[in-house]
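Q: Can I see a sequence and its folded structure?
A: Here is a first one.
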Amino acid sequence: MTIKVVRGNPTPEELAAALAVVRARAAAAALPSGAPTVPDAWSDPSRIAARRVPQPGPASWSRTYWPGA
């Protein structure tokens, strides 16, 4: 792949950024459209709901953030 600057005087950082965008677009176009995607584990709502909510009480505020406390 050849990239030619036809106008302006870009800095090396600007050229690197432009090349990164072009390569990312080319890589995305090369992927098959029906490829299954695996969601990230941190965005899975079931990991939050897997633990029980602490019961209300005088010290429940201290158990609301730290798991297993």
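Q: Show me another, different protein.
A: A second, unrelated one:
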Amino acid sequence: MKYLRPISLSVLLSILLLLVVPVSFAKNAIDSVRIWPSPGSTRIVFDLEDTPQYSYFTLSNPDRLVIDLADTKKNFDFAKLANKSPLVKKLRYSSAKDKSGIRVVIELNKKLDSNLFALPPTEPYRNRLVIDLDDKNAPASAPTVVKHNNTQQSRDIVIVIDAGHGGEDPGSIGRGGTFEKNITLNVAQRLAKLIDAEPGMKSVMTRSGDYYISPNKRPDIARKHKADLLISIHADAFTTPQPRGASVWVLSMRRANTELGRWMEKSERHSELLGGAAEVIQDTASERYLTQALLDMSMDHSLTTSYDLSRKVIGKLRGITRMHKKIPQAASLAVLTSPDIPSILVETGFISNPSEEKNLNWSKFRQQLATSIFSAVKTHFSESPPDDSLWAKQKRHTRTHKVRSGESLSLLAQRYNVNVGAIKAANNLRSDVVRIGQVLTIPRT
């Protein structure tokens, strides 16, 4: 009879480990979910601890988008998710393909086009899965400009106001936690209100809420509305807190020739990565060459007008804040590349400077910014109104007169065959007193 050799402790432990049923732990988890509704579309963003491994498909009757996330914990409570999208009914879990993953169902209110893509960590975000839902049948907004057959009628001057960043892209973040996207939207809304209150002017906002629009698509909005001018509002930032002051930028057909300009170009690319990868992926060499050729043919007038207007804006801003640069700056920025529309980008101050971050959070200062920009725009179009606009028509029916010694309002009214009240109204005069050298607008009867 043979005796069995005693089993060592190490071998026994190995056998026991093999007999234990292996337990799999999902390495990924959902940290948060955000829903960003915008006109005709909605963006849903999953913040994840690790790079998402996903697949998806759609279902009808009712319409749903189903997403399978591999190796992911079922840790997020969709019942607590804030949802103001008219396109999305709700998000919920369903039976997963396997025990290590999860299945998320997005219930839709109608059939939508969907585009999903993952984004790597980019401050202030971690790994993300982005779901873009688009309603291709959404009613298009009515054209802003209506050409009248009656030649006696004239159109409004259309000014598109672009609030920089938005939604998934917060822009620069101040040391006090201020998001640039909130500053820009508020200043843009104030500027739009001033423009809309001016007879013969009309504003269009590229975004009216907190949602993302690609920098490349913002000039398209201006072109769609046949804009006479595009103004993009931003708040500057730099790697150190010392730089301060406002600045105004126009498009450069070459690379930026200053360190700040190069920083801005890099920041714009950063915004594309924050907001979405689709435009970056589609940036092919052939498209760049075609765009360059088109810009070379039609940019001269736009650049000249943009530069002239930017000098006027700088002149007005100088009255309320320090200027970082006293002349217009140039950089290759996508939001300025509309070849047929004069475009400027206004940096309202450095959000990375603690003192200017405080100013930008001050309601009175934001109003001063809007008023200064509007005053420069009004001066520009008073001098050079579009030919078919109401302002051009009014300019053709007015004259100017420089007051000389011995002249009075009654004398000028008699000379030009108009009444005194009309001259006072055209020049916002509260009394009959005029100064030598004063330039008066004389309306035509």
